[in-house]
Amino acid sequence: MAANYSVIEKRLWEAADALRANSKLKSSEYSVPVLGLIFLCYADFKFTQAEKELAQAQEGSRRRRTVGKLDYQARGVLYLPEQSRFSTLLKLPEGTDLGKAINEAMKAIGEENPELAGVLPRNYTSFENSLLVELLKKLNFQQELQGQEGDVFGKIYEYFLGEFARSEGQKGGEFFTPLSLVKLIVEIIEPFHGRIFDPACGSGGMFVQSAVLVETRKKVDPNAEISLYGQERVGETVQLCKMNLAVHGLSGLGSILEGNSYYDDIHKCLGRFDFVMANPPFNVNAVDKERLKTDARFKAFGLPKADNANYIWIHLFYSALNDKGRAGFVMANSASDARGSELEIRQKLIQTGAVDVMIAIGSNFFYTVTLPCTLWFLDKAKMQTARKDQVLFIDARHIYHQVDRAHRDFTGSQIEFLANIVRLYRGEFSEITNGSQALLDEQFPNGEYRDVAGLCKVATLAEIETQGWSLNPGRYVGVAERAVKDFDFAEQLEELNEELEVLNTEARELEEQIEEDIQKLLQNLS
After folding, report:
1. Phi-psi bin for 479: left (phi > 0), alpha (psi -120 to 50), beta?
2. What are the tens digits of pLDDT across the range 391-439?
3. Which domain holds residue 76?
């Protein structure tokens, strides 16, 4: 049976959010406990399935023995003591202190499954008993999902993460990267095997989509092919990440650690990883560069002088790769053209030959900010190929699906189309599973890469040098010719507004730089 995910997800979210609206809780206080209950419902569903399978196996066996914890774990299922089962909590008599009962249920799961010790939320006593009763009823969606195909629970968990990110505003942006951007990054760097590192891992979306790609394209168990290493500054977000991985049946929760990636090299990442993926916070200031001066991770290109951490992140991603590693990450548009010491770092990075692909993304993809962004892709193996002195630039600002007035994403065919442009550029076969063939045939009629005005261009390092070592796709791709009949005033106005937002941002940055330079000049003169 095909899963009608969207209807189920929406109904569950509306029910849970309505309960929150009628309580005294803020969205930020509500999100982790609700996700914990979704996790518990999932764990009980898997446990019940395993329980039935083990009982059937016992019936067909001559030797009867007691089924135990190891039998469940051998099936990749979390072992649940009776008190920790979602079904048990639903049956508790009226008047039971549900907050205490759920806290004890979460604690017991951690005791039986050490990887989850201290991970699951245990603050349910702060909820009113009546609210918990209704939540348990509303989130009990096991029955209606019987027979559904695919990772239903994982999709519901992701949907709730996204909705909480949307409702929590800026704080939500700290833990959630829009799914379509994550999928595009994963499709382009293709992390099929090896060690994957995300030093700003948030709720773990990069890891989950890497596993999905391995499972769908390679038809193998992701746990046998990839190892996950994450780092996250906020302890509560580490919890979200570990629960997300567990919901998707992924191992390696012990390698998701709390720490500040600027200062704490917990995973000893220098030259260690096959793949690096991240959506770091943009334009962070006040990073203590004195603490980083002797850090080997920043030795190759040095530290930026500007009070902005964008190039600290970029340097960290590069240095974490082994000699054949690939990286894909989200970055503020301003980093593509940053001047001064940041330009010097960018020039050195480009001259290594590791910069592979740059993709400009339009506005409104994030829940928390409207500004556009850029996806950067590094490939150290490219340094030894004929493409060493080339970079592919893609302008995807006019490719999107309008979710609602304020939000956009990519469709599956759009993600596949953009990833296939990269495959053609690399001399690889395209992947057609999501309906991108028509788009490919239109733009690349011979099935081979070509520069397309307004869409993509391969630039040489010499051309990039003449552009002041800019990595802004708009400088290279140009503008596609448009027939007059295709003119759409609303669309044109929106495009001009996007461009104005970018220019205003750059203008503000220039003003700050000029003010800083003037202050330094005055200090030198006094």
Report:
1. beta
2. 999 999 999 999 878 789 999 999 999 999 999 999 999 999 999 999 9
3. 5-165
